[in-house]
Specification:
Chain lengths: 382, 288, 291
């Protein structure tokens, strides 16, 4: 009996050594040449207010991966996602990045979805030589932050400028701002405020935390300033929903400007059609006539029986997987090489149109001005 | 392997927090829900000194601990007048205010945007960049905190603290300035929490106020309730169990949203069951 | 100043909501003497009860509100029987009860999040577009007016019951001294169970009204609880009318406070008020000295 036990223990130890050693060996070998399923990390919000994005965006990534895998994958190996919850919050994103980099040993990560996630994850991925590719983080501070960071969603510097110009052109001089306390919203405000001041206008800002629910006193304070317009910079449709309800109740009258996450949510815009009538937004638009864009929208609608929400992010998320797959095919599974390849992309055709990445790692596209009419988004000047 | 190193580092940070709160709650009987505030103050001081002043980690950690102690001293002057439920409520108030200041003093803390890119510690040219070396550092600090706490609880000072817990009235009759003892243990505990904060900031490399709110204070409190009040070993065991528990649930295979909630359910039910059937915790000597 | 009128209305709305929580909290505290954090969970249970009856089952608003309040009352009774009474029977200390109730709060919120997701949901399907009333330059919606009316009505009813009925005398006897009440033949367990049912119904109502006004999410009870407990202490812990006064003091302090400083400091104002009271008047506005 004793002998048997000892042998069992020995067997287990040997097995463990073989397993760990094997994993070690293969992990070491994975670099550059692809010898197994290609693991791509994903940091998106699945809990918290921004969780509305997590599930639909993961579906989009999966659609892209399914298509690539069906067509032979990368050198015959399928793409696999390692998904972590970034909660649209820096600490969670940093934790997720630590795990993906150190434990899962991925060489490339799609994320963070929120600017705050990307800003917190970037120092960790850069230090580890892992490529970080965001298809939605838009904070201007991410421009040129690291040679290992790339995005195919434009910086909010263009959103802030486009909206500020529209406000000035429409005779608004004094603009009230209701800003959520997040990196994304703060980034837009900074650019917007600078552009307004340059044109001789002023802004009056009230900030709110993500979990605020009572905006009445902030609204009353802004109302008392008698502004020409109000810019609502919400980070997710959730807080925008509460703000719009209370704006309506308190009889808000002057014109509105809204951030692109609001314009990107068709139900929200339709629900508050009367309040938002004539409101301006600046979005990275979608092109319904682009066949690649139709491809992802149709595939999504067929599989999930509903049109995908937030289509500006759908197109960039879909492209992200194809870009990364192409990069790995070209240069192998190596974070630094993947990032270098991605930063060199020129006139690449995807669901989001023609993509060229500039020396800051930003796409060479901007936001277009839109106006809300009867609960629908219309592009200005088309 | 890296996975275990990661968990072990988190465990050491929370074990330091649990031990430091154990001194306040378990030994002295003061139910403080402000602990995450001191954890946060330490983390922010270390993060700002490392990032903005380019200071070395070790003096920064010392300053972080001292900063936490200073704030704890000021709060403690007020708090030490209370006992029982009122102590808990007062500390809750201060905890929320500390959180609000971290959140809203944006010129200093960048508010909800947090501080990214905090460097790892360095000592004589050696950088603690690998998780193994960081774990070593955390274990050394944990050992130091444990040893100091053990020395403290066995000293005459520690006996006075336990006497306060048993009967504050009687002790003051003997001429002890009990509020002085309560203040002292509060400040010492806060200093240790500050050390844990510095370790956390430099390990995760990113901090924002969300990691230091009242929910976090309650989490630290539940570590020592699970482990058992009045036992330093209990604090360590509590931290070990509650750090490993969510990882065990990870393998069950829920979707991320459900997994996060399941963890909360398990954790809530655990507290209820403990209170019903074993209010002294796993290794506790003293019942609440 | 037209803004002052609106701020007054905002303070009254916030105060009414806190008042429902604080009065019911103090009602139960008076007899049980422990900080029942599960009280917040019952507000969430009430709100989700209304959501289930009104939105999922599609029944009319009045049925949905009644359903929410009833669910909260039943849940409160269940908690008393399954957790709090066994603990009391074992002569558990206040802190043990507090931590058990904390466990309930955490577990209930998470369970609701699993069944209904943690996403924010509006109940506007039930109320339709918000109808507003103008008072001078201030605006108030029907739901918000209902909140204020409910707070006043609940306070008045509690006063009638507590001071004019034999049931009320029994409650006061238990609150004054449970041992003596037992000796004179009052079944304290029955009284406490009744208080849990009534208190939970009231806090459930606060959750329902909050849901109708703003929308629902699993964390709403915790947010209401924090403010409600501050109001309860500021007003005088264990004193129902104190809770009423304290709630409006907190509401006014918050809303007029952020007139002068920026809105993100709102939380800090409420807790600053708590600390001020703990230091200078720990017994609260209407409390007795010895607490």
């Amino acid at each position: 009996m004793q002998e048997g036990k000892k042998r069992n223990v020995l067997t287990v130890i040997v097995l463990l050594i073989v397993l760990i050693g094997g994993a070690w060996f293969f992990a070491g070998n994975l670099k550059t040449s692809v010898t197994g399923p290609v693991r791509i990390g994903v940091i998106h919000p699945f809990t918290g207010d921004a969780a509305v994005y997590g599930e639909p965006m993961l579906r989009v990534l999966n659609l892209a991966a399914e298509k690539i895998n069906a067509e032979g994958g990368i050198d015959g190996y399928p793409i696999e996602f390692v998904v972590e919850d970034g909660k649209c919050d820096g600490t969670a994103a940093a934790n997720a990045a630590q795990k993906l980099v150190n434990i899962d040993k991925v060489e490339v990560i799609i994320g963070g979805f929120c600017s705050g996630e990307a800003l917190a994850a970037e120092p960790i991925t850069t230090a580890a030589g892992v490529a970080l590719f965001s298809s939605s983080a838009s904070n201007p501070k991410l421009s040129g932050i690291s040679p290992l960071f790339v995005r195919n969603y434009p910086s909010d510097s263009s959103q802030g400028v486009v909206l500020a110009d529209a406000a000035i052109a429409n005779g608004m001089r004094k603009i009230a701002v209701l800003q959520e306390q997040t990196d994304y919203a703060a980034g837009i405000y900074e650019v917007f405020d600078a552009q307004i001041q340059e044109n001789g206008g002023t802004t009056h800002k009230e900030e709110y935390t993500t979990d605020s629910y009572d905006f009445r006193t902030s609204i009353a304070k802004l109302q008392a300033e008698r502004p020409d317009g109000l810019f609502v910079i919400a980070n997710s449709p959730v807080s925008a929903e509460r703000i719009f309800k209370q704006l309506k109740e308190m009889g808000w009258e002057s014109s509105l400007l809204v951030s692109d996450v609001i314009a990107g949510d068709p139900t929200l815009v339709a629900t508050h059609a009367d309040l938002l009538e004539g409101a301006y937004a600046a979005e990275f638009g979608v092109d319904d006539n682009n066949p690649k864009f139709r491809e992802v929208i149709d595939a999504y609608s067929a599989k999930y029986m509903t049109e995908p929400p937030f289509q500006a992010y759908v197109q960039t998320g879909y492209d992200a997987v194809f870009l990364i797959a192409e990069a790995i095919k070209e240069v192998g599974y190596d974070g630094e090489k993947i990032a270098a390849w991605l930063r060199d992309v020129e006139s690449w055709q995807g669901a989001s149109g023609t993509l060229t990445i500039n020396s800051n790692g930003d796409p060479e596209v901007g936001h277009r001005l839109e106006v809300i009419k009867s609960g629908k988004i219309e592009v200005v000047g088309e | 392997m890296e996975y275990f190193l990661h968990l072990a580092i988190l465990f050491s940070i929370f074990a330091i927090l649990a031990i430091s709160l154990q001194l306040i709650v378990g030994y002295t009987g003061l139910l403080s829900v402000a602990h995450a505030g001191f954890y946060g103050i330490g983390a922010y001081i270390v993060a700002l000194l490392l990032k903005n002043a380019g200071m070395n980690f070790f003096p920064a950690l010392l300053l972080g601990a001292l900063g936490s102690m200073l704030v704890a001293f000021l709060i403690g002057i007020v708090l030490s007048r209370f006992r029982d439920d009122y102590y808990a409520l007062g500390s809750l108030g201060f905890g929320v205010i500390a959180f609000s200041i971290l959140l809203n003093w944006q010129e200093l803390t960048r508010g909800p945007l947090g501080i990214p890119g905090i460097p790892r510690p360095e000592l004589f040219g050696f950088e603690f960049s690998s998780n193994l070396s960081y774990l070593l550092l955390s274990f050394i600090l944990l050992g130091a905190v444990y040893a100091f706490s053990r020395f403290l609880t066995l000293s005459s000072f520690g006996r006075a603290l336990q006497a306060i817990r048993e009967d504050e009235e009687a002790l003051s009759v003997f001429g002890y300035r009990t509020s002085w003892f309560k203040l002292a243990v509060f400040v010492i505990g806060a200093g240790m929490a500050g050390i844990a904060g510095g370790l956390f900031a430099s390990y995760i490399t990113y901090i924002d106020p969300g990691s230091f709110n009242v929910t976090e204070s309650i989490f630290i409190l539940s570590l020592i309730i699970l482990g058992g009040l009045g036992s330093l070993r209990g604090a360590v065991v509590g931290a070990l169990v509650l750090i490993l528990l969510p990882e065990a649930l990870r393998f069950v295979g829920f979707t991320p949203d459900i997994a996060a909630q399941m963890r909360q359910v398990v954790y809530g039910v655990l507290l209820i069951v403990l209170m019903l059937y074993r209010p002294q915790g796993l290794m506790g000597k003293y019942k609440l | 100043m037209d803004i002052a009128a609106q701020l007054t209305v905002n303070s009254l709305i916030a105060g009414s909501l806190y008042a429902l929580v604080a009065m019911s909290f103090n009602l139960i505290f008076g007899a049980t003497r422990f900080f029942n954090l599960a009280h917040g969970a019952l507000a969430t249970v009430g709100a989700y009860g209304t959501f289930y009856v009104g939105v999922v089952l599609g029944l009319p608003l009045s049925v949905a509100v009644a359903g929410g309040v009833l669910t909260a009352a039943l849940a409160g009774y269940a908690l008393e029987r399954l957790v709090f009474r066994p603990l009391r029977a074992r002569k558990a200390s206040n802190l043990v009860l507090l931590i058990a109730s904390l466990g309930i709060l955490i577990a209930v919120e998470a369970i609701l999040a699993i069944f209904f997701t943690s996403q924010f949901k509006t109940l506007s399907v039930l109320t339709g577009a918000a109808q507003t009333i103008h008072i001078g330059s201030a605006v108030i919606t029907h739901v918000q007016l209902t909140m204020f009316a409910s707070a006043v009505l609940v306070c008045g009813t509690l006063w009638l019951v507590l001071s004019k009925t034999s049931f009320g005398r029994a409650i006061r006897a238990v609150s004054d001294d449970a041992e003596v009440a037992k000796i004179v033949g009052i079944n304290t367990n029955v009284i406490i169970a009744a208080l849990f049912v009534i208190g939970s119904a009231i806090v459930g109502l606060s959750g329902v009204l909050y849901g109708l006004d703003t929308g629902i999410e699993p964390r709403l009870g915790f947010m209401l609880l924090l403010k409600g407990v501050i109001a309860a202490i500021v007003g005088g812990i264990g004193n129902v009318y104190g809770g009423f006064l304290g709630a409006f003091l907190v509401g006014f302090a918050e809303n007029f406070g952020i007139w002068f400083i920026s809105g993100e400091w709102k939380e800090a104002i409420a807790f600053g008020l708590l600390v001020l009271f703990l230091v200078f008047r720990p017994q609260g506005i209407l409390g007795k000295k010895h607490t």
